[in-house]
Amino acid sequence: MTDSSVTFHGWASTGSVQLQPWSYHPRALGPRDVEIQISHCGICASDIHTIKGEWGPLVQGTCIAGHEIIGTVVARGVDQAEKFAIGDRVGVGAIAESCQTCEYCTRGLDQQCAQRTFSFNDTYKVEQDEHRRGVTYGGFADGVRVPGDFVYKIPDAISSAEAAPLMCAGSTTYAPLAHHGAGPDKRVGIYGIGGLGHMALQWARAFQAKEVVAISTSDDKRDEAKQLGATRFVNSRDKDSMKQASGSMELLLVTSFGPDTDYNELLSLVANNGTCVLLAVPEKDISLSVSSLLGRHINLTAWLLGGRTAIRQMLDFAAKHNVRPWIETMPMSDANAAIKKAMDGFPRYRVVMHTGVVEEP
C-alpha cells in the first residue's frame, strides 16, 4: 500500500551502472516509521556492485541504492513521536528492519537476523499486515521512509557530510575492532587503505592500540596512513617488509582485496593465537592453507556491518575522539559522475553526494 500524496525523486538503476532519474510513492507512513528529507548520502562499493547486478537481480528491476543516509525528520508515526522531533538530524545505515526478538537481535547482532531487511533492493519481512510490506529504496534520493528503530540521531559535533560514511564504512570497521578488543594490549593491522581501511586506522588509533600497522600494495598512501593513525607502514609487495612483519599482529582486519591477494601471506602477519577478520567480499572464493591456521591457532573470521547497538556506540565514540572519514562531496544531481569517481578509485577516501538541503547543526 503506497502513499500517493508523497513522491520521492531519486536516481535509479535498472541493472546498469548508468543511473536514471526515477520517482516513486513510498509505502504508507506506519506508526513505527520515520520520514526523512535527505541531505547527504555516501557511495559504498556495495551500492555499485548491486546496481550493476553483480550481486544478483534487482528486486523489482529498478533500484535506488544508497545506505549511508543523512537527513532531517519531516514526519513520524505515532509510536515514534516521543523518540524523534520534527527537524531532528538523523542517519540510516545498511539495515532498515529486523525482528528484534530473535537471539541475534537481542544480542545486538540484528544484521544476522533471518528477517533483516536491507535499506535498498530488499523487501520488508517483519510486518504482520501484508499491506505494510514492500520494497526498500535507498538514499540516492530526496527522501526515504524507514522504521524508526533503525534511525539514529547524529551528534552535533559531526557534520552531515562526514556522518554519511559513518553509517556503513564507520560501523563496519568499528564493530569488529570493538568486538575483538582492539586496545593497549593489541597490535592491530589494517590491510587496504581505502574507504574502509582509512576508517579502521582511525578507530585503532582511538582505541589506543599498542601498534597500528597499515598494510598497502604500494607506498602511495604511506604518509596519509600515518596521518590517519598508523604507527608503522608495510608495503605488501615488499617481501623484506612482509617478512619483518611476520607474526607481529594480534588482530588483522582485511578491508580490501585484489586479483592477486595472497591470503596465506596475510595470515603470516598474524601472531600465534591471533585473529584475522575479513571485511571485504572477494569476487572469487579464496584459497587458504589450513595448516597455517591449525599450527598457530589462528582464528579466521568475518564481519558483516554493525548492528544497532554498535552504530549508536560508534557515533558517540566518533564524536568524542574526533574520528571522521576523509570525503569528497558532489551534488546528487551529478550522481553518475559521482558513481564513476567512486568506481575509478579516485576519492580520498569516500564520495558523499548532497541534495543541496542545508541542515547542519
Automatic annotation (TrEMBL):
Q: Which residues form the Enoyl reductase (ER) domain?
A: 12-353
State the UniProt keywords alphabetically.
Metal-binding, Oxidoreductase, Zinc
* Cofactor field: Zn(2+)
Q: Which PANTHER family does the UniProt record give?
A: ALDEHYDE REDUCTASE (PTHR42683)
What protein am I looking at?
Enoyl reductase (ER) domain-containing protein
Keyword DNA-binding recorded:
no
One Pfam family linked to the record: ADH_N
Supply the SMART domains for this chain: PKS_ER (SM00829)
**Domain of life from the UniProt record:** Eukaryota
Highest lineage ranks of the organism? Answer: Eukaryota, Fungi, Fungi incertae sedis, Mucoromycota, Mortierellomycotina
- Which source organism does the UniProt entry give? Actinomortierella ambigua
One of the record's GO molecular function terms: oxidoreductase activity, acting on the CH-OH group of donors, NAD or NADP as acceptor
